[in-house]
């Protein structure tokens, strides 16, 4: 619990899950850490894709929900656009012939092929989307109920626009003594 609080985005829980799966996959043999870690990464990425999609939709609606929200919309759009731009730049970099032929390029290509299989193979996309959106709905519901519990009744549209951006901000590893954006 301590490490999950001081590390960004619940990384320790993911690490523990990968460790458990790696040991379970090959009982009696040497643990298989690679497939277990990649499975956790693919699952976490699918969940974050749902958060990014709802955050982008919410950000597009900010000017309609909040008067004078142009600056906040621009900042929030930047939060969503930067990781997307970084991902596109990385994919472009990996397509460079010199890098693609190297060891890192081959490893990245294998990783991306496994990702395509995990996300789009044999109906996985529908299951991934349904589960990710269901989990995201529970987060939205938690924020909504928490607001009502303290006497702040937010309209559902506001919850859907603001909470995904808050969830994205929780991933930013900026804190002082373990207290940072996530706790705020």
What does this 3D model show about the protein?
The protein contains 8 helices and 2 strands. It has helices spanning 2-6, 11-25, 33-65, 70-94, 97-101, 103-120, 124-149, 156-169; strands at residues 175-176, 179-180. The chain has a two-stranded antiparallel sheet with strand order 1-2. Strand 1 and strand 2 (179-180) form a beta hairpin. The longest helix is centred in the N-terminal third of the chain and has 33 residues, at 33-65.
Mean pLDDT: 76
Number of helices: 8
Strand segment count: 2
Strand order of the largest sheet: 1-2
Strand content: under 5%
Biggest pleated-sheet summary: 2 strands, antiparallel
Radius of gyration: 19 Å
What is the CA-CA span between the terminal residues? Answer: 18 Å
Give the SSE string. Answer: HHHHHHHHEE
Keywords:
single chain; about 180 residues; mainly alpha; two-stranded antiparallel ribbon
Which helices and strands appear, and what pairs or packs with what?
Layout lengths: L1 H5 L4 H15 L7 H33 L4 H25 L2 H5 L1 H18 L3 H26 L6 H14 L5 E2 L2 E2 L4
Antiparallel strand pairs: 1-2
Task: Please give a quick description of this structure.
The chain is mostly helical.
């Amino acid at each position: 619990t301590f490490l999950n609080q001081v590390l960004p985005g619940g990384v320790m829980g993911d690490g523990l899950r990968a460790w458990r799966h790696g040991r379970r996959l090959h009982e009696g043999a040497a643990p298989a850490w690679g497939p277990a870690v990649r499975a956790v990464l693919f699952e976490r990425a699918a969940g974050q894709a749902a958060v990014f999609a709802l955050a982008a939709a919410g950000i597009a609606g900010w000017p309609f929900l909040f008067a004078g929200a142009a600056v906040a919309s621009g900042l929030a759009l930047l939060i969503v656009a930067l990781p997307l731009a970084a991902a596109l730049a990385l994919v472009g970099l990996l397509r460079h012939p010199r890098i693609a032929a190297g060891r890192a390029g081959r490893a990245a290509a294998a990783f991306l092929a496994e990702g395509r299989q995990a996300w789009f193979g044999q109906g996985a996309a529908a299951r991934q989307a349904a589960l990710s959106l269901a989990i995201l709905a529970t987060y939205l519901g938690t924020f909504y109920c928490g607001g009502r519990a303290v006497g702040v009744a937010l309209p559902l549209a506001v919850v859907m626009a603001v909470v995904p951006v808050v969830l994205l901000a929780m991933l930013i590893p900026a804190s002082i003594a373990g207290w940072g954006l996530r706790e705020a």
